[in-house]
Amino acid sequence: MTLTDNPDYWENRYQENNTPWDLGQAAPAFISLLHSENPPEPGRAAVLGCGRGYDVLIFAERGFDVIGFDFSASAIEDAQIIADTAGTSARFMQRDIFDLSAEFENYFDYVIEHTCFCAINPQKRFDYVNVVNSILKPEGEMIAVFFTHNRPGGPPYGIAPAQIKQYMHRSFETISLRPVINSVPKRIDEEYLGRFRPIQSSETFGEN
């Protein structure tokens, strides 16, 4: 087990306010997508590793029925306070995302990813893809901002765009995977926005 597999690691980070991944706002790529000429139609959405919930709020504001999930109780508490202040319908649950399949199988129209994939143990990335596939409806969609830096170590653990496709291709069709052009300054040239649709005949797969 790595540190990032332990909920106490993330809980301590939030209690110490040592959360450099927290932008204090929704990901600019999501804001642009939701205000584009062809935004995704509202539906049930899950935001994995939601932190303080800024991405949850932006989708809720656009009419989505959204639940944010996070390992950390403090993150969920902060997120709920922010959501209550904003007066939105957003909901939050403290969960290990790898347990969601049993509770939310084929439940969501969308899974929203931002700074969760890069935070988990890289050895669990195939498990992550399988969880996303299992909680999405067959006609659902994953919308993801990936952190594509190439620095050693982590978290955040980097990944190349070609590797993203390798992890996704057995269970998902890639609709699009493009560089983000309006990242916050500290992430310029290090983010990709991807949209993926489940392959109808897919099964869950492991690395082999």
TrEMBL record:
<dbReference type="InterPro" id="IPR029063">
    <property type="entry name" value="SAM-dependent_MTases_sf"/>
</dbReference>
<dbReference type="GO" id="GO:0032259">
    <property type="term" value="P:methylation"/>
</dbReference>
<keyword id="KW-0597">Phosphoprotein</keyword>
<dbReference type="Pfam" id="PF05724">
    <property type="entry name" value="TPMT"/>
</dbReference>
<keyword id="KW-0949">S-adenosyl-L-methionine</keyword>
<protein>
    <submittedName>
        <fullName>SAM-dependent methyltransferase</fullName>
    </submittedName>
</protein>
<keyword id="KW-0808">Transferase</keyword>
<dbReference type="GO" id="GO:0008757">
    <property type="term" value="F:S-adenosylmethionine-dependent methyltransferase activity"/>
</dbReference>
<dbReference type="InterPro" id="IPR008854">
    <property type="entry name" value="TPMT"/>
</dbReference>
<keyword id="KW-0489">Methyltransferase</keyword>
